[in-house]
Amino acid sequence: MMEKDSRIFIAGATGMVGSALLRKLLASGYSAITGSYRNRKPAAYGPGAVQFVYADLTRQQEVEDLFGELRPEYVFLAASRVGGILANSTYKADFIYENLMISTTIIHSACKAGVKKLLNLGSSCVYPRMAPQPMKEEYLLTGVLESTNEPYAVAKIAAIKLCRYYNEQYGTDFMSLMPTNLYGSNDSYDLNNSHVLPALIRKFHEAKRDGRPSVELWGSGMPRREFLYVDDLAEAALLIMEQYSYGDTGELVNVGTGTDMTIKELAALVMKTVGYSGEIRWDLTKPDGMPQKLLDVSKVKSMGWGPSTSLENGIRKAYEDYLQTQPSAK
């Protein structure tokens, strides 16, 4: 049972998911939180509210030493090397190596340190490219993966299996959540590494600012995608960590909205939010990725969770965050 003074560790606490978890934990009254960071420096959360530690989570001994010092009781594994189609296609070796190592070092160290519960946060890209829609948890490893993100997906599948087999061999309580496409505060707007929604926000804003008549977007715009505001994921993660165990969740639990739209429809929505009135030109020489990625969310709904942020409100919040925090918005 998580207490308000339980020792909590967030791996990757300065990323989009990690910072959303921090906000949710602090708002819920938790007071003994440590978060790791590497590339992104931590923001201020008030005196003494959060302890931040710099750590290279790909190094086993460094993570074991860290866990030995902190003695965390509950661990949120939110650290990842992430990116969109371009980044996944360019840095294939880095994506599989770094994500495999992060998962391996954290999960193994959590077992050795006697962590009470661990929540591993993955991605809907673990499912086969042509999986039936919506994708149920049992579709894992039933088909070929999408080639444009296979290295990342393989690493995330390995993390799911690590949690399962540590549970089976050592009696740990390690669970896995598979969120759909996430967006929101503290997202990455780097066009070489970002996902589709933050990339659209930046492209349309800069085109509006510079008075450009058109914006070029990758692919056909026909793939269908599902989007979840990151603070809604944080609510699901805390609910499951507080109230459930591996015996309840099974190998993994999907977290999403249960609805999707085409990239063309998403682009129109972002255009409207940003206030850009130019033309979209679709570059058909660029890849589309998976034709559809819609999660079956019946399991997580049966556990008492549902999203509270509409896509329209979420995009508005994300755009406000972009304007306030990103140098490229100026």
Describe this structure in words.
The protein has a 7-stranded parallel β-sheet with strand order 3-2-1-4-5-6-11, with helices on both faces. Strands 12-9-14 form a 3-stranded mixed β-sheet. The chain has a two-stranded parallel sheet with strand order 7-10. By secondary structure, it is an alpha/beta fold. The longest helix is centred in the first third of the chain and has 21 residues, at 92-112. The protein is globular and about 60 Å long. It is built from 11 helices and 14 strands. The N and C termini lie far apart (46 Å).
Strand proportion: 15-25%
Counted up, domains total 2
Helix/strand order: EHEEHEHHEHEEHEEEHHEEHEEHH
- Sheet having the most strands: 7 strands, parallel
CATH superfamily of the largest domain: NAD(P)-binding Rossmann-like Domain
Gyration radius, rounded: 19 Å
Summed over residues and divided by their number, the pLDDT gives a mean of 94
Secondary structure tally: strands: 14
**Terminal-residue CA separation:** 46 Å
H/I helix tally: 11
Spell out the key features of this protein.
alpha/beta; 11 helices; single chain; three-stranded mixed sheet; Rossmann fold; UDP-galactose 4-epimerase, domain 1; 41% helix; 330 residues
